[in-house]
Design a protein that fits this description.
The chain has about 110 residues and is mainly α. It is built from seven helices and no strands. The longest helix is centred in the C-terminal third of the chain and has 12 residues, at about 85-95.
C-alpha cells in the first residue's frame, strides 16, 4: 500500500473528506486532494505531519505504513517539535543519562 492509498483509507475510515482534512490542517483546501489524485506529484513532510495530526495517525504510518502503536517512537512523534527538548531532558533525567545510551538501551 502506498502513501496515497493509506491516506485515502484513513480518510474513509474516519469519514473525513480530503478538503476538510486540508482545511483542518491549515492548508489550502485543495492541497490534499491534488496530491491524492496525482495532480501534484509530491507533498512536503511538514504538510504530511499536519495531515497526520488531523487524522490522528502517526507520520510514520502515513509515510511508511508502519502500524500505529503506543511505543516510544509513536509517542515521540506526537510531541510538538518545540516541546521535544523538554521531553528529552525529562527522559534523560529519568534514565540517568546525559544523552543517547551507547549500548542502545535506556
Amino acid at each position: 500500500m502506498d502513501m496515497r492509498t493509506r491516506i485515502i483509507a484513513v480518510l474513509e475510515e474516519k469519514s473525513i473528506s480530503a478538503t476538510a482534512a486540508s482545511k483542518a490542517a491549515g492548508l489550502s483546501d485543495t492541497t490534499l486532494t491534488k496530491f491524492l489524485n496525482g495532480h501534484t506529484r509530491s507533498i512536503t513532510v511538514e504538510n504530511l505531519e499536519k495531515i497526520a495530526g488531523v487524522l490522528d495517525v502517526s507520520l510514520r504510518y502515513i509515510m511508511f505504513g508502519e502500524p500505529v502503536s503506543d511505543n516510544v517512537v509513536s509517542i515521540w512523534d506526537r510531541i510538538p517539535e518545540e516541546d521535544r527538548p523538554k521531553a528529552r531532558a525529562i527522559l534523560e533525567a529519568f534514565t540517568g543519562t546525559d544523552g543517547p545510551a551507547s549500548n542502545g538501551q535506556a
